[in-house]
Amino acid sequence: MDIVFVNDLRFKTIIGVWDWERQLPQFVSLDLEMGWDMSAAVKSGQLEDALNYKEVAKRSEAFIKESQFELVETAAHELAALIMTEFSVPWIRVTLRKPFAGNGSKAVGVCIERGNRE
After folding, report:
1. pLDDT (average), residues 12-36
2. Alpha-carbon separation of residue 117 from 68, 87, 99 (angstroms)
3. SS3 content of the chain, % helix, strand, coil (to 5)
4. CA dist 100 → 19, 22, 27, 31, 106 (Å)
5. Catalytic residue positions, numbered
6. How many of the other CB atoms lie within 10 Å of CB of 30?
7. Which residues pair with 9 in a beta bridge?
8. Sheet holding 2-13, edge to edge
9. Which domains are delineated in the chain?
10. Contact criterion met (CB below 8 Å) for 16 and 67
11. Cβ-based neighbour number of residue 60 at 10 Å
12. Highest-pLDDT range among 18-22, 103-107, 109-113
């Protein structure tokens, strides 16, 4: 299976469980790896046969911003389900990070995989 990816998509959103996190938007960083059969796009050279990573990125950012999740675990799970459904992606890996959220760490977050990678 081929993989289409979006790496280090950064934006501010409300995410977290603490009161101060619910008041102030903070940066998150999103990585997506999506299984996709590229053969039709390779053959035709047409965008409509490809997985439009720009649209996936825009939809992902909008979804996370509007949902204002408390847990990164829930955000990653719900985003994976949305992308698989809306973009017909059979396999996805979602990595969602909150930079500087842990004491002294560069970032904390989760990485999940859903679907069939074959």
Report:
1. 95
2. 29, 16, 29
3. 35, 35, 30
4. 17, 17, 9, 17, 5
5. 98
6. 22
7. 30
8. 2-13, 26-36, 91-99, 107-115
9. 2-115 (3.30.1130.10)
10. no
11. 21
12. 109-113
Q: State residue 4 phi and psi, 5-degree precision.
A: -105, 135
- pLDDT for residue 105 is more than 90: no
- Give me Rg for the CA atoms of the chain: 15
| Distance (Å, whole) CA 15 – CA 55 | 22
Element (DSSP H or E) covering residue 73: helix 72-86
> How sure is the predictor about 104, in pLDDT bands with cuts at 50, 70 and 90?
confident
Question: Please, what's the largest Cα pairwise distance for the chain?
Answer: 52
C-alpha to C-alpha distances, 81 to 78, 98, 102, 110, nearest whole angstrom: 5, 20, 27, 15
Length of the chain in terms of residues written: 118
Cα–Cα distance, 66 to 33 (Å, whole number)? 22
